[in-house]
Design goal:
477 residues, Methyltransferase, Cobalt-precorrin-4 Transmethylase, Domain 2, 4 domains
């Protein structure tokens, strides 16, 4: 994927969150001379860095060479970043590069940047508009591609909040421009509900009746270009809500945005460690110690640290994890994971462990076969119940509380639930989203969604971010 990223006017703090998110996973970064040093310092050490900067009168690489370079690198690497000062589509030649990428049959994304046209005056205390002094602003380059003073009449006019006054606006613009001047009306821009109407100036008022505010009106020859980079993305125009606890949904959100979705992170639950829950608790002498979530792993090690104990207490116990993410969290703490069920849920975790520890006939008289607990499981206080508790000892080390949701976005296309508790948390606050597509991790989460009235349910068989993402994409394929 090729990303045309606006780096802003220089201050690294003005790089957008989306720009930073993409920059952190770049394989190659082709940057301009106007990109600030602070932004350049953010480029990952592993990325190939190519200076394509131009200083007035001294071009290091021609524009055509830059376009060819972008395309060549895209055939070799996964994530290509074209990093440009300001905004790529405002005097940044991003439009030319987008045309070249489309011609080459490659995919790309535009990440708008903060333009120096507005940011630099603002930093100097000069507002571009002010209700008492200025009702608008036109932005020009001081020289065209032939290094000449540009034709000021051949400019792009952009109007905000103009739908209600479209008839008057059309009349005024016809005094200056041809009736055939291209126009574009864009409502709900950058969201899943974005709508675009291409028209001509003589039909501006008529077209404005077909859209709802907020909208931007673009007047000028640039409005006839068609560089729509989002139309082929699998989740374009989809608004997706992720209900995972705070700090757990960012990777999935990034993948969904890459696929074109508008993503809202809105945790429906919050977790907290149960203080002193390990105090005086024996954690040795078990054949298996099992963890049911990443949160449980982090809570366990926090409790160990706080009680001045360490992992050596578990002795020779083997380790089990409910899924891939939990296994990764354990590996990060230096623990080898011995068992992960094929289906990532509590039922399959416990059934799988019981099968492993079913004693042979020869071991029928062993202490374990005579009723001793074989498996210690660390879990949430209010999690799903274990069906057969005979072989399990439970220690509840964290609890889950519901989050009261406010300002839940309307017109959701999909809600992603990563546990039965996230469904319960959502249902506690919201009552009118039952027909929205629900993507659920595992059968237990899906059962809870069905119990709460959801009728359109997709199940991610594995509790892995990549599988949840693929399930979401398949929901619209």
């Amino acid at each position: 994927m090729i990303y045309l990223i606006g780096a802003g006017p220089g201050d690294s703090g003005l790089l957008t969150l989306r720009g930073h998110e993409i920059l952190m996973k770049a394989d190659v970064v082709i940057y301009d001379n106007l990109v600030g040093g602070g932004v350049l310092a953010m480029i990952p050490e592993s990325a190939e860095k190519i200076d394509a900067g131009k200083i007035a009168g001294s071009h290091k690489i021609s524009q055509r060479e830059i376009e060819n370079l972008i395309i060549e690198k895209a055939k070799i690497y996964k994530n290509i970043v074209r990093l440009k000062g300001g905004d790529p589509f405002l005097f940044g030649r991003g439009g030319e590069e987008a045309e070249a990428i489309i011609k080459a049959g490659l995919g790309f994304e535009v990440v708008p940047g903060v333009s120096s046209a507005l940011a630099v005056p603002a930093y100097a205390g000069i507002p571009a508009t002010h209700r008492d002094y200025s009702s608008g602003v036109e932005i020009f380059t001081a020289h065209d591609k032939n290094n000449l003073i540009p034709d000021f009449e051949n400019s792009t006019q952009i109007f905000l909040m103009g739908v209600g006054n479209a008839a008057e606006l059309e009349k005024k613009l016809l005094e200056k421009f041809s009736p055939e001047t291209p126009c574009a009306l864009i409502s709900n821009g950058t969201t899943a509900r974005q709508k675009l109407i291409k028209t001509s100036l003589k039909n501006l008022a008529k077209s404005a009746k077909k859209i709802n505010p907020p909208a931007v009106i673009v007047v000028g020859n640039a409005a006839k270009l068609n560089l729509d980079w989002r139309k082929n993305l699998p989740l374009n125009n989809k608004r997706i809500l992720i209900t995972r606890p705070a700090g757990r949904g960012e990777k999935l959100a990034s993948m969904l945005r890459d696929a074109g979705a508008e993503v809202i992170l809105m945790p429906t639950i919050k977790t907290s460690v149960i203080k002193n829950s390990l105090d005086k608790k024996k954690i040795s002498g078990y054949e298996f110690i099992a963890f049911t979530s990443v949160t449980g792993v982090e809570a366990f090690f926090e409790l160990l640290r706080n009680s001045n104990r360490d992992i050596r207490e578990i002795g020779n116990a083997k380790i089990a994890a409910i899924g891939g993410a939990t296994a990764d969290a354990l590996k990060n703490h230096g623990l080898k994971v011995d068992f992960v069920p094929e289906i990532f849920d509590l039922e399959n975790l416990t059934i799988g462990l019981e099968k492993i520890l079913t004693p042979s006939p020869q071991a029928a008289l062993s202490p374990l076969a005579m009723g001793a607990k074989k498996i210690l499981i660390f879990r949430a206080l209010n999690g799903s119940a274990i069906k057969n508790k005979e072989n399990f000892e439970e220690i509840f080390i964290y609890k889950t509380d519901f989050v009261k949701l406010t300002h839940v976005p309307k017109d959701l296309d999909m809600i992603i639930f990563t546990s039965a508790s996230t469904v319960k948390g959502f249902a506690e606050s919201v009552k009118n989203f039952r027909e929205v597509q629900a993507v659920c991790i595992g059968r237990q989460t899906a059962d809870e969604a069905e119990k709460n009235g959801f009728i359109n349910i997709k199940i991610s068989k594995r509790a892995a971010v990549e599988e949840i993402f693929l399930t979401a994409v398949r929901g619209y394929s």
